[in-house]
Each structure stands twice: as C-alpha cells, then as structure tokens.
C-alpha cells in the first residue's frame, strides 16, 4: 500500500497544507489528542499516518440531513 505523504513525521505547516486547514486548527487537533506528535525543541512533528487517517475519517463522516 503506498502512502500519500512520503515522510514519517511532518510539521504543523505541512499538516495544515495537506488537510487544507489553518495551522491554528492543527494545533487544536494536537491539543485535543486527535493527532499524535513528538516535540523537537519548539517544533511539533506529527505522524503523517495520523494526518492521513484524520483526513479519511472526515471524508467518511456522515453529514446530518
């Protein structure tokens, strides 16, 4: 199975770009525990697999109506 993102860890800016969200929204996802991350200094490095899974789950979520 090929992955869409070819790095194991990505930055908040890269995650925001991939998800088409703001960086603040991505920080909120980190704070809520919806994305796993590692800190390196002041930087948050997010597991790309989690970003892909989050994107897929938002696409598959049923909308009320």
UniProtKB/TrEMBL annotation:
Organism domain of life: Bacteria
Residues of the Helix-turn-helix domain: 10-56
Gene Ontology molecular function: DNA binding
Residue spans crossing the bilayer: none
Pfam families: HTH_17 (PF12728)
Name of the protein this chain belongs to: DNA binding domain-containing protein, excisionase family
Organism: Succiniclasticum ruminis DSM 9236
């Amino acid at each position: 199975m090929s992955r869409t993102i070819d790095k194991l860890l990505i930055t908040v800016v890269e995650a925001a770009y991939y998800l088409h969200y703001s960086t603040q929204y991505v920080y909120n996802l980190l704070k809520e525990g919806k994305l796993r991350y590692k800190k390196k200094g002041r930087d948050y490095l997010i597991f790309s697999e989690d970003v892909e899974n989050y994107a897929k789950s938002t696409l598959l979520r049923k909308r009320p109506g």
